[in-house]
TrEMBL record:
The gene is cbbS. Residues 9-106 form the Ribulose bisphosphate carboxylase small subunit domain. The basic functional RuBisCO is composed of a large chain homodimer in a 'head-to-tail' conformation. In form I RuBisCO this homodimer is arranged in a barrel-like tetramer with the small subunits forming a tetrameric 'cap' on each end of the 'barrel'. The keyword RNA-binding does not apply. RuBisCO catalyzes two reactions: the carboxylation of D-ribulose 1,5-bisphosphate, the primary event in carbon dioxide fixation, as well as the oxidative fragmentation of the pentose substrate in the photorespiration process. Both reactions occur simultaneously and in competition at the same active site. Although the small subunit is not catalytic it is essential for maximal activity. It is found in: Bacterial microcompartment; Carboxysome. InterPro entries: RuBisCO_ssu (IPR024681), RuBisCO_ssu_dom (IPR000894), RuBisCO_ssu_sf (IPR036385). This is Ribulose bisphosphate carboxylase small subunit. It comes from the Bacteria. Keywords: Bacterial microcompartment, Calvin cycle, Carbon dioxide fixation, Carboxysome, Photorespiration, Photosynthesis. Heterohexadecamer of 8 large and 8 small subunits.
């Protein structure tokens, strides 16, 4: 077993190697399967002290496929290439965010979709 290199860790799944396109699709599929509402958010920094990210458009209330969510992620990345981009899943019954994970780091991982 090898120790990971020392680097800044972000959120859920950040201790794993960068997610592949297929893994991102599976995470988004899980969000949709559980009935959570996906949304895309972005921010210039991912400091732990920053609690509020800017939402890209509105939550994707009517999203039925991973492709719809991935298209919005790609649009956000294109518009704000120097920002962190994450996908979040909201539970409309509990009225809270259930999960989030970063899908784009500026100058870092580049996902293709």
């Amino acid at each position: 077993m090898k120790t990971l290199p020392k680097e800044r860790r972000y959120e859920t799944l950040s201790y794993l190697p960068p997610l592949t396109d297929a893994q991102i699709e599976k995470q988004i599929s899980y969000i949709l399967k559980m009935g959570y509402i996906p949304a895309v958010e972005f921010n210039e920094t991912s400091d732990p002290e920053v609690y509020y990210w800017t939402m890209w458009k509105l939550p994707l209330f009517k999203a039925n496929s991973t492709r719809e969510v991935l298209d919005e992620v790609q649009a956000c990345r294109s518009e704000y290439p120097n920002c962190f981009v994450r996908v979040v899943g909201f539970d409309n019954v509990k009225q809270c965010q259930i999960l989030s994970f970063i899908v784009h780091k500026p100058g870092g991982s580049s996902y293709r979709y």
